[in-house]
Amino acid sequence: MLDRDLIEEVLVAARRRGGSFAELFVEERSSTSVRLDDGKVEELTTGLDRGAGVRVAQGTSYGYAFSNRLDRGALLQAAEAASAALTDGDAGGIVDLRASEPGAVNLAQRPASEVPSARKVAWLEELNDAARGFDPQVVQVVGVYGDSLQRRLIATSDGRWVEEDRPRIRLVAQVIASRGDDNIQTGFEGPAACAGVEFMDINTPRQVAETAARRAVTMLDSTPAPAGEMPVVLGPGCGGVLFHEAVGHPLEADAVDKEASVYRGRIGETLASPLVTGVDDATIANGWGSYAYDDEGSPSQRTVLFAEGVLQGLLYDRLRADKEGVASTGNGRRESYANPPVPRMTNSYIVNGTSIPGDILADTPRGVYVTAMGGGQVNPATGDFVFGVAEGFLIADGVVGAPVRGANLIGRAIEVMQAVDAVADDFDTWEGICGKDGQSAPVGSGSPTIRISHMTVGGTG
Question: Nearest-5° angle of CA 151, CA 155, CA 156?
Answer without folding.
Answer: 150
